[in-house]
Design goal:
Mean pLDDT: 82
CATH topology of the largest domain: MetI-like fold
Number of strands: 0
Largest sheet: none
CATH superfamily of the largest domain: MetI-like
Helix content: over 70%
CATH architecture of the largest domain: Orthogonal Bundle
Strand content: under 5%
Oligomer: single chain
CATH class of the largest domain: Mainly Alpha
Distance between the termini: 59 Å
Length: about 280
């Protein structure tokens, strides 16, 4: 009796061992094995669960004008894409974000490096940084409209404002985090001030600079939506604000989902560019 029970179990175990390499080979044909397959499939499964919960919740409420289903949002997205309106709003918002972000980063990185490297500069500018970084960009929307009008300059100014302080503080923190032993080693080897900056300070600060830029990009998305709700005739923020007048919640959801997708794709693009340009200094990005 015992032999009859053991043999089937052994056969099942042998079959499982044979099937496991076959499964791995099947995944390998699609370029995915092990952890990489999980990294791809788990986010897809997570989004699928979210869509199911969203659909069930919308059906339970039963009022499309209050909470549309994913299918309603998809139908509205198709309409906006076909008319070209969605692309127009995307281009308007992304142009403002990229312009303000680039200008803010160009100001913030040198400022942060100088503040971190030179105590005199840090003492002179730190009070301004600490004061203005606690003033929300949204509180300056009205002033931006008065100073720059309702055109592109006011939105770019707000994005620049919110970017500068985040990147500056992260850059300064990167310089301050350099181990004293590394600085002493450079000086003991006869490195000049310029060589210390190029070969020690700047490489050690790169991970902090890039992290600050990624955080600033998220803040830029938040700021541009609020700015476009008040002072714009195009953009995703304008689409959200104008759609409320006609209770077009499906269009509002389209804009919200588009913002999330744009943010996700922008972050992926930034990480890819950063890994190509500065991967040796920040391998964890």
């Amino acid at each position: 009796m015992s032999d009859e029970r053991v043999v089937p179990s052994r056969l099942a175990a042998d079959r499982a061992v044979e099937e496991e390499p076959q499964d791995r080979a099947a995944w390998a044909r699609y370029g995915m094995t092990g952890a990489r397959a999980r990294a791809v499939l788990l986010p897809i499964a997570s989004f699928a669960v979210l869509l199911i919960v969203w659909h069930v919740g919308a059906r339970a409420i039963g009022i499309r004008a209050l909470f549309p289903t994913p299918l309603d949002v998809l139908a509205e997205a198709r309409r906006l894409i076909a008319s070209g309106d969605l692309l127009t709003h995307i281009v308007a918002s992304m142009t403002r974000i990229v312009a303000g972000f680039a200008l803010g980063s160009a100001i913030a990185v040198p400022t942060g490096l100088l503040m971190g490297s030179l105590p005199l500069v840090r003492s002179f500018l730190q009070a301004y940084i600490e004061f203005f970084r606690y003033i929300p960009a949204l509180s300056l929307v009205t002033l931006a409209m008065i100073w720059f009008g309702i055109g592109e300059a006011s939105k770019v100014f707000l994005i620049t404002y919110v970017t500068v302080f985040i990147v500056t503080i992260n850059t300064m923190a990167g310089v301050a985090s350099i181990p004293a032993a590394k600085l002493r080693a450079g000086r003991s080897l006869g490195a000049s001030q310029r060589q210390m900056f190029v070969y020690v300070t700047l490489p050690a600060s790169v991970p902090f600079i890039l992290t600050g830029m990624r955080i600033a990009m998220g803040a830029a998305f938040t700021t541009i939506v609020a700015a476009e709700m008040v002072a714009a005739q195009s953009g995703l923020g304008f689409l959200i604000f104008s759609s409320r007048l006609y209770m077009q919640t499906d269009a509002i959801f389209v804009a919200i989902v588009t913002l999330g997708l744009l943010g996700f794709l922008t972050d992926c693009a930034m990480r890819w560019v950063m890994s190509m340009v500065a991967g040796r200094y920040a391998p964890q990005l």
